Records
---
Amino acid sequence: MGPLESPSLESHTLRLEPLAVAHAEEMFETLSAQSIYDYIPGGPPSSAAALRERYAMLARGRSSDDRQLWLNWIIRVRSGQCAGFVQATIYPGRTGDFAFVLAPEFWGQGVAFEACQAAIPHIARQFGVTGLFATVDPKNVRSIRLLTRLGFLEIAPSGYPHGEVEPDDRVFSLSCTPYFVPNAG
Ligand SMILES: CC(C)(COP(=O)(O)OP(=O)(O)OC[C@H]1O[C@@H](n2cnc3c(N)ncnc32)[C@H](O)[C@@H]1OP(=O)(O)O)[C@@H](O)C(=O)NCCC(=O)NCCS
């Protein structure tokens, strides 16, 4: 298997499927609630066709200059519904940005937490990622609670290695080296 042909990841109640163009129709519904975008840039996709186009780009798995790896998984819950996605952008220095988005009907159940707990060790081991970063609107209390529960620690915005931080955004970082356990799969 090549480095970008990620497997599906299984957790106790979830399946994380590597993002494919075929997810666009289902995810158009999932991403349609305006409240998802209260504290993150953008808004609901304008159409399933527009989302297909975006997913065709993301599913290539890397930027056109080959410097960034783009890892995206759709979160599928037991009922078969797509709850949202987790995403990591990996930079040449083997650090990454980490992000997650769920439809509001799946908030407050630990679904995002379970999905992130499945994705992070895989990202660390499979791609040799040593640290993950997240920049968060200070009003995004749910996201900050989730990052904290996952073990992310707040750092000074000047320590963010992947570009400019939006004014007022808080920056969180997780060291992934504990996942490099000897003989771990
Ligand atoms: C950020 C986001 C993913 C957080 O979702 P979430 O459901 O709050 O996150 P978690 O999966 O950690 O769930 C935590 C909640 O589930 C509850 N829960 C239930 N069972 C749980 C379990 N087994 N484990 C953990 N939490 C559990 C917790 O008590 C908590 O409940 P509360 O909200 O009443 O305090 C979601 O708000 C979202 O998609 N927002 C829009 C997009 C966004 O802002 N993304 C972040 C960009 S930085």
---
Amino acid sequence: MNNMIFDALFVIVPILVLGIFIFVIIMLISPKMRGKMMSRQIRATKYMMENAKDDLKEMGTMAGDIKVQTRKHILDQNEERLKDIEKRTANIEKEGIEVKVKAIRDGLSKNAIYCKYCGTLIDEDSKFCKKCGKEQ
Ligand SMILES: [Zn+2]
């Protein structure tokens, strides 16, 4: 009795291992086999998706609802702060535009830069501002 179990183990286990080994080798070498396996997996996925279509739709709708509600909640709770941020951003942009407009008006001289502190147009190589006197 024991001998039979041992025999079975010593025959079946090596056959299984060899089988797996051969399968892995075939999969590694043969792109055709890999393609076949992959298309089978894709078909299975398609089938699963087809079955779960309604659930997926429902999940999508739920996710969309949550997104809208969250956004609405954030806007409701922070309206004043958001307005403040927008105003401050607009002011920063305005300053940038003013600098650009000034540069255009001044003729965009290649050898001139603006003072970091007072914004006066000075020579590119000057060490100090001619108006405020600060080091560049
Ligand atoms: Zn200056």
